[in-house]
Design goal:
The structure is a homodimer.
Chain A (H helix, E strand, L loop, with lengths): L2 E6 L11 H11 L9 E5 H7 L3 E3 L7 H10 L3 H9 L1 E8 L2 E6 L4 E3 L13 E3 L5 H12 L3 E8 L8 E8 L5 E2 L15 E2 L1 H12 L8 E5 L24
Amino acid sequence: MRLEIVPLTTIPEVRAGDDLATLIQAAAARENQIIDAETVVAVAQKIVSKAEGALVDLRGISPSPVAQSWAAEWGKDPRLIELVLTQSRRIVKMDRGVLIAETATGLVCANAGVDQSNVDGAGITTVLPQDPDASARRLHAALGCGTVLVTDSFGRPWREGLVDVAIGVSGIEPLSDLRGTADRHGRKLTATVVAVADQLAAAAGLAMVKDAGCPVVLIRGYNWKRAGGSARSLVRDPQNDLFR
Amino acid sequence: MRLEIVPLTTIPEVRAGDDLATLIQAAAARENQIIDAETVVAVAQKIVSKAEGALVDLRGISPSPVAQSWAAEWGKDPRLIELVLTQSRRIVKMDRGVLIAETATGLVCANAGVDQSNVDGAGITTVLPQDPDASARRLHAALGCGTVLVTDSFGRPWREGLVDVAIGVSGIEPLSDLRGTADRHGRKLTATVVAVADQLAAAAGLAMVKDAGCPVVLIRGYNWKRAGGSARSLVRDPQNDLFR
């Protein structure tokens, strides 16, 4: 086994309405990279949102009283806070300037995925794709690759720093469930469910350098369990979550 | 940029007192793999603990009343629970059969890192290395590689499945702090600190298949910030942690 992780470095600035699959295929061709049924294609949420027009102009937003008071208390843009609130179906934590929200698709993340970085134009902000699994499925079909992951950088309780995770998938069972299989010594593994889609996203993240604009990364040599798949299975059921 | 992730597949069963660096070098030589100053070497905690003799025989443990009642309630081995308690400096959550603890070095994880999988011998359990950074430093010096990461599989709030993280490092600044640098559009990145050591650990985890015994993985082609480094900087200060 030998995994290869290769970023595409010539993806142009993506704009609303662009056909992402065509941009990815053109970049791969320019860079002599083959995308085939054994290739994992990881795509940064940011360009998926841009292509799908998941963009909001803050200048059109009227902040509610709670957004205004929170923004004033923590030195934030009240329109941005209002946008975060409208992108949330539940607030998990709102404390010390940090806003952790549950999004419409159940993801738990800072600012409900609202993000101003790497966007062209003052006041323009991306929000998460409406249905990241569907975004992944469309790209998967158009690219003819093995699997597509839509990835985003999330913070975590207990640990510092962002890591990339899969927020949308197609063509992969995102959890590898080894429960019931035996370890090297014949002892049954009792609690080993590995978030392979998140590990693939993190591996791709190593090559998606934030300030260099490499929003698409190819991974080859990985043998994954093929399935329709949904990134929703990576989200813990709130009923079983001790930290929500 | 092209990252390569290669597991060593011929590491023998590790026993207390083994010289891990020698075992790794011998496996690399057998497998025609070069370990040099550009190589990241990720080593699973399990074999570090075994080599260092961080092993406990449950048969020598007398469970306390709290371990006994918790074990009875959730169908666990009371000696195992007692061991988890002795490995903890603080219990973060003890609920519904889940025991999340803060270890002596500040890590927050299930069962304080106590783990029975992949250990040879009934009743023998591994605990975390006493000082995982020191373990990484010793291996780093002996291997002459670029950096060493001691990795372990951790669960996470909000998301299902385990991902590998770095619990000990040497030769790397584990957080890549991009705050103050500009994105492609010249906008300052305000909240972008990436946990590169954890992303490397997760990437290595893809090749450390739990039931196949590949506890050492080489990563090549990654350009990281060289530093002494400590995995403690990956652990959020409890004062700033909204979920502890």
